[in-house]
Amino acid sequence: MASTLTNLRVFFFTLLLLASPLLQVGRCQSESDAEVAETVEEATDLGIVGEDALDFDDGSFSPAPGVETAAVFHKNSARLVLAGEEAVVLVGITNPGGQEITVFAIKASVHLPFDHRMLVQNLTAQAFNNATVPGHAQSTFPYYFAVSKYLQPGTFDLVGTIIYEIDQHPYQSVFYNGTIEVVESGGFLSMESVFLVTLGIALLVLLGLWVHGQIQNLSKKTKRTSKVESGTATRDASLDEWLQGTAYTQSDSKKLKKKKN
C-alpha cells in the first residue's frame, strides 16, 4: 500500500511539472504588456513614422563591419504570436565605432521553417526619422508586427532586418532568424481548457490506481484464509479390487467374522 501511495504522489507531481509551462506562458504574456509599455515610453523620441514613409523592399545591403544586433521577445520566451494581433520584439544594435549610426527602418518576413524560399508573409516595415546610435554605444528599438489572422497556427520562421546608415553608406543586418509559434487568438483559453481536461483525466487515473490497490489488498487477505472441507470418507472401488487376496483383505474378513460371532 505504501508503494502504491508513493507511485501516486510521483505521478501527480509529474503532471504538475508538465502542466506548469502552460500556466507560465499565459502569465508571461500578460506581464509582457506592462514591460513593453515602459519600453515604448522610453522610445518616444525615435520618431516612428510607419510603413508608408519609405520603401526598403528594393534595397539589399551588407552588414556594417563590427555592428552587432540582437532580438528579445521580452517576457515571451516561447515566442508565441497571436494571429491577427500586434506583437513586439525589442531590437538591440551595438555601435563599436566612433561614427554615429542612423537607423532608417526595421522590417521582417515570415517563411516556412523547412524552406526559406517559401515566403508566407511580408510584415509591416517600420520606419524612423530621427533614430540614432552614438559611437561606442548601444540602443534598443521596439518593432511592432502582426501576422495575418488567416494564417494557420503552427511553427514558422521569422527573419527580421534592421536598415541603417553610417557616414552616408547604407547597411542592413539580420537581427533575428529563428522560429515563432503562431497561435489562434484566444489560444491561452484553449490551453487552459486542455490543462483542465488533462487534470481531470489524471484524477480519474489516480482514483483507478487507488481502487486497484484496494482490490489487490482484499485478494491477498482472501488467499490467506484456508478453506475447510467436511464429509464422509469413501473407498475407491478400484483400490478394493487391487487389494483382493492380500493380507489387508484377509485381516478385514477376520474382523467381520469376529463381529458376527
Automatic annotation (TrEMBL):
Q: Does the keyword Metal-binding apply?
A: no
Membrane topology term:
Single-pass type I membrane protein
Q: What is its main location?
A: endoplasmic reticulum
Family of the protein in this entry: Belongs to the TRAP-alpha family.
Task of the protein: TRAP proteins are part of a complex whose function is to bind calcium to the ER membrane and thereby regulate the retention of ER resident proteins. May be involved in the recycling of the translocation apparatus after completion of the translocation process or may function as a membrane-bound chaperone facilitating folding of translocated proteins.
- Name the species this protein comes from: Erythroxylum novogranatense
Please verify whether the record's keywords include rRNA-binding.
Answer: no
The name of this protein is Translocon-associated protein subunit alpha
- Signal sequence span per UniProt? 1-30
Report the coiled-coil segments.
none
Q: Where in the cell is it found?
A: Endoplasmic reticulum membrane
Mark the transmembrane ranges. Answer: 194-213
Alphabetically sorted, this entry's keywords are: Calcium, Endoplasmic reticulum, Membrane, Signal, Transmembrane, Transmembrane helix
**Whom does it interact with, and what assembly results?**
Heterotetramer of TRAP-alpha, TRAP-beta, TRAP-delta and TRAP-gamma.
- One Gene Ontology cellular component annotation? endoplasmic reticulum membrane
